Amino acid sequence: MLNKVIISGGGTGGHIFPAVAIANEIKRRYPNCEILFVGALGKMEMEKIPEAGYPIVGLPIRGLQRTISLSNLNLPFLIIKSLWKAFNLIREFKPEVVIGVGGYASATTLYVASKLRIPCLVQEQNSYAGLTNKLLANKAMKFCVAYENMEQFFPKEKIVITGNPVRKVILLVEQKNQEEEKANLGFDKKQPLVLAVGGSLGALTINNTMQSGLQQLADNGIQLLWQTGKNFTPNTEGFLQTKALSFITDMAAAYAAADIVVSRAGALSISELCVTGKPVILVPSPNVAEDHQTKNAKALVKNEAAIMIADKDANQFLISSMIALLKNEENKNKLSLAIKKMASPNAVNLIVNQIELLKQ
After folding, report:
1. Which residues lie across from 193 on neighbouring strands?
2. CA dihedral 131, 135, 136, 139 (to 10 degrees)
3. Looking at domain 4-165+345-359, does it have CATH number 3.30.360.10?
4. Which end of the chain has fewer CB atoms at under 10 Å, N or C?
5. What is the pTM of this model?
6. Average pLDDT, stretch 79-100?
7. Is residue 66 pLDDT above 60, yes or no?
8. What is the pLDDT of residue 75?
9. Element at 36 (helix H, strand E)
10. What are the two backbone dihedrals, phi and then psi, of residue 99, each rounded to the nearest 5 degrees?
């Protein structure tokens, strides 16, 4: 029985969506459980968590600026202030378990909770642990991970491989009819369709490559469903087989309609792609901490479950690789079967099982 739980972290959708999935499963099992989120002021979670129906408290914590900045001088004071606020918050709320999902607030909250002898669990989404989670290696009691070989970051006896939680709608993709979904999205149901996504904000390299390759795709009879992000305005005039949207609301329909997917290699995206079983070409972002997207992608490539093209090579090789993959049924089937084997559709249940064990 869980009565009070704190979930801390955020900064990106890759941290927030798993956190909400965990909270939803706890509430499904224990409707009367009080769940409080702790995030970082000014970050994405301060908006997204209330939208999901949960209360959140913000800490004034932020990261170290990698460039020389006067704002770094203020960082020690923000850390002390955040630790004190987390201490008072935990002492007042009295959680039975504290869960960290990564992000600046997570390390602060779990550090204080561990000092107060409250059981802590970390959910690490990536194949290469982030700095905040690495700092908790000796503080948390359990680490729920999505990849093997995480002993380099966390004590082996504390690691449980659970996979990453995915949105419930993604679990329903296999039940959808591909041709019907193509037609519902306004495409020819008999022609091949590429889904190109770069995260909610888009990806400049993928966007520029798609823009320059529209004629080549059209010449090969390939349709394109393209999530550009809000900061990129494509020119698709004359390309009736291309549908460009700043944001795709119904990702389940988009995945179901696609023949192949072109994507960045964030942990959440990869987890969803594994569940959908779609052949995928990954273009990892080079602009992330510890280059963790490349490490995520390589974990799939090692299992022959994805094709990876480096960001710097995308302009030269991405379009031709897409066309070649669409024309190679054997390779598509091989990739699809391999990536499906890496899926963890039951991840959120396994994680909450571990949370329950901490309470005992």
Report:
1. 223
2. 180
3. no
4. C
5. 0.87
6. 95
7. no
8. 62
9. strand 34-40
10. -115, 130
Domain 168-341: CATH class, spelled out: alpha beta
| Residue found by looking up tokens 């469903």 in the block | 225
Q: What angle do CA 291, 297, 300 make, to 5 degrees?
A: 150
pLDDT of residue 260: 98
The pLDDT score that the predictor gives to residue 12 is 80
| Predicted local distance difference test score (pLDDT) of residue 199 | 62
Q: At what angle do helices 104-115 and 75-93 cross, to 10 degrees?
A: 50
Per the structure block, which two tokens stand in for 214?
């529209």
- Would you state the pLDDT for residue 315? 95
pLDDT at 250 over 80: yes
Decide: 262 and 318 in contact? Cβ < 8 Å. Answer: yes
The 10 Å CB-count burial string (b at 16+, else e) for 142-165 is: bbbbbbeebeebbeeebbeebbbb
Three-point CA angle 301, 288, 234, nearest 5° = 85
- Angle at which helices 13-29 and 347-359 cross, to 10°: 60
Q: Do domains 4-165+345-359 and 168-341 have the same CATH topology?
A: yes
pLDDT digits 0-9 by tens, 296-310: 999 999 999 999 999
- C-alpha span between 111 and 109 (Å, rounded): 5
Per-residue burial over 200-221, b if 16 or more Cβ lie within 10 Å, else e, is: ebbbbbbbebbbebbeebbeee
What angle (nearest 5°) sits at the alpha carbon of residue 5, between those of residues 4 and 6?
A: 135
Residue 323 to residue 298: CA distance in whole angstroms? 22
Mean pLDDT score of the chain: 92
Angle at 61 between CA 285 and CA 160, to 5 degrees: 60
Phi then psi for 322, rounded to 5 degrees? -60, -50
Instruction: For residue 347, give both structure tokens.
Output: 């991840």
Domain spans in the chain, listed from the N-terminal domain onward: 4-165+345-359, 168-341
Contact (Cβ atoms closer than 8 angstroms) between residue 194 and residue 224? yes
- Reported as type and span, the H/E element at residue 6 is strand 4-8
CB atoms within 10 A of CB 190: 9
Measured CA to CA, the distance from residue 262 to residue 192 in angstroms comes to 14
From the centroid of its chain, how far is CA 156?
Answer: 24
Nearest in space to 203 (alpha carbons), one of 229, 235, 225: 229
* The dihedral sign for the CA sequence 57, 10, 254, 166: negative
* Residue 53, both tokens: 């129906």
